[in-house]
Amino acid sequence: MRVALVVIPASGLGAAARVSGTVAATLRAAVDHLDQYMPGSPDETVEILRRLVADGRESVVIVGGDGAAHAGVQACAGTETALGIVPAGTGNDLARALGLPKDPAVAAAQVAASLADGRRQRFDLGKVDGGGWFATVLCAGFDSAVNERVNRMRWPRGPRRYDVAIVAELAALRSSWLVVETESDTLELPANSVAVGNTPFYGGGIPVCPDADPADGWFDVTVVGQAHRRDLVRILPSLRTGSHVDHPAVTTLRARSVSLRTDGGWIGYADGERVRQLPLDVSCVPGALSIIPGQT
C-alpha cells in the first residue's frame, strides 16, 4: 500500500510542522510505503493533491486544519482515493465530524490502524452549482460576515480574532430578506443568517446544525430569522450546545438541495473558505468521498 502524507506546515500556527515527524513515523509503521510532501503555499498544496489523485494514489493523509482538509476534499471527491485527516489546525471541524481526537499523535495512530486494516467509509458532500465541494457547513449572513472581517484583520492572532470580529459585526447587524428554496419547501423571511450543514460543526466546534449526519444523504438547514442584536447575543451562547434550534427566531429544515437568495449581498462560506456572493444553489451528493475513519 502506497500512502501519501501531505503536511501543511503553517497550520495551527506551526503545529502541523511540529508533529509531522511523529505522524510520519506512526503511518510508516502501518503501510508498505509512505511518500511525504510539505507544500510551501496553498497553490502548491492543490497541485500536489491533484497530482497524487491523478496518479491513482490509494490514500492521502493530510496534517493540517480545515483549509487543508477542504483542499483534500476538492481533490479526492468523486474518486477512489481515500482521504485521511490528522487535525493540526485551529478549528478542525471536519476531523471533529469524523470522530477524531484533538491530539494529532492519537489521531495519527487511529488513522494508521484504519489504513492497516483497510477500513474505508463513504461520506456525503455538498456540491455548489458551478463551484466546488464542501464537507462541513456552508453559511451566509452574520456568520460569513464574521469570516469576511476575520480575513481582513491582522490582530489579534488565533481564535481571539473571531471574538473581536463577532463583537464588531454585532454592532453593524442588520437583517436581509432571505429566500430558502428546497425540493419541497420555500421559506421567505427577514433573516440574519443561514447554515446548510452536511455535518454539525463550524467555527471550531459550534454545532450550528446539531443533527446533521454525513451518511444520510440530507442537509440540515438552520435559519436565524430577524432578531435584535440583544436577542442574537442571547442565542450565541446556546450555539455551543446546539440548543439554539429551540429559539423562536430559529427555523430548521431538511433538504437534498437548497437554493439561497437574498437582497443583502451576503457572501457564502463553505468549510470556512470563501465561495461567492449569493445566490447559491447547493446539492447533497451521497457517498461522494471515501474517507479513512478513526477507530470506533
Structure description:
This protein has helices spanning 11-28, 42-54, 66-76, 93-97, 104-117, 142-152, 160-171, 229-238; strands at 2-7, 33-37, 59-64, 82-87, 121-128, 133-134, 137-141, 176-182, 186-197, 201-202, 206-207, 219-225, 250-255, 257-262, 267-270, 273-277, 280-291. The chain is an alpha+beta fold. The chain has 2 domains: 2-119, Probable inorganic polyphosphate/atp-NAD kinase, domain 1 (Rossmann fold); 133-287, Tumour Suppressor Smad4, CATH 2.60.200.40. Strands 5, 6, 7, 8, 9, 12, 13, 14, 15, 16 and 17 form an 11-stranded antiparallel β-sheet that branches. Helix 6 packs across helix 7 (160-171). The relative contact order is 0.17.
What's the SSE pattern?
EHEHEHEHHEEEHHEEEEEHEEEEE
What portion of the residues fall into strands of 2 or more residues? 25-35%
> Unreliable runs, pLDDT <50, ≥5 residues?
none
Using the 3D structure, state the CATH architecture of the largest domain: Sandwich
Find the count of extended strands (DSSP E, 2+ residues).
17
Number of domains: 2
Task: Briefly note the CATH topology name of the largest domain.
Answer: Tumour Suppressor Smad4
Pfam families: DAGK_cat, YegS_C
Cofactor: Mg(2+)
Protein name: Sphingosine kinase
Keywords: ATP-binding, Kinase, Lipid biosynthesis, Lipid metabolism, Nucleotide-binding, Phospholipid biosynthesis, Phospholipid metabolism, Transferase
